Amino acid sequence: MADHSASGAAQRPRRLVLVAGTGTEIGKTWISVQLLRAWRAAGLTVAARKPAQSFAPDDATTDAELLAEASGEQPDDVCTPARHYEVPMAPPMAAAALGRPAVLLENLVAEQMWPAGVDVGLVETAGGLRSPQADDGDVLDLARALHVDVVVLVADAGLGTVHAVRSCADALEHAALPFVVILNRYEETDALHQANLAWLHDRDGIAVRPWTDDEGPRIAAELAGTAVG
Q1: Could you tell me the maximum CA-CA distance found in the chain, to the nearest angstrom?
Q2: CA 37, CA 5: separation in Å to the nearest integer?
Q3: Interval 94-139: pLDDT, tens
Q4: CA distance 63 to 88
């Protein structure tokens, strides 16, 4: 993939966090909303961005609307209407299906504008880590182009997550991107969830955390203020 710069970010947040997933319907938006709420509750100034979003025309709410409610912004600031694609496909595929111009990574990067004085900026991507975000780049390429401080990789806690997390972790490590894995929908009494967490953390040495009521605020604080790797 081509190397793109982050020259479009006129006002960069003090810390820039990108939320990706091991796949679709993994709970990226839910985790993003929890992070934004926790940061605001801690007195931090936040902003959220969704570079492009695709959805079914009859969806009750969009990701941008949910993120905007959590960050205190307007949905059109979170995701510009030009990047709304009313068909549930990866953004460049949706654009092609709708007969709209090709989505280019350099344009997505240039469109991520931030207000001055933002402590933590959150970028939520579409689909999984290797899902196309543009005709010439996927989530991994976008993370590198934006020069994010850390990638939050959201994974399910149940069956299949060891393979999914390992595969994504390999790609993130190869790209030299700092990351932390959050196991979503984690049940502390579920033996499989416990085993998956232990395998990934203890055997594979992957920075993986369960999202629970107790751990959530600690994870949010670490992401806002310290390097994670």
Answers
A1: 49
A2: 30
A3: 999 999 999 999 999 999 999 999 999 999 999 999 999 999 999 9
A4: 12
User: Residue 111 burial (CB < 10 Å; 0-12/13-18/19+)?
Assistant: middle
The per-residue b/e assignment along 199-216, b for 16 or more CB within 10 angstroms, e otherwise, is bbbeeeebbbbbbeeeeb
- Nearest by Cα to 222 from 157, 149, 128, 164: 149
pTM above threshold 0.90? yes
Residue of 50, 83, 144, 209 marked active site: 50
Please name which of 130, 129, 124, 14 lies closest in space to residue 65, comparing C-alpha atoms: 124
Q: CA-to-CA distance for 162 and 194, rounded, in angstroms?
A: 12
Told to judge if 50 belongs to the known catalytic residues of this protein, a careful annotator would answer: yes
Burial 118-128 (b: 16+ CB within 10 A, else e): bbbbbbbbbbb
Structure tokens at 30: 């839910």
Task: Kindly list the structural domains of the chain, giving each domain's residue range(s) and its CATH number in brackets, ordered by start.
Answer: 15-225 (3.40.50.300)
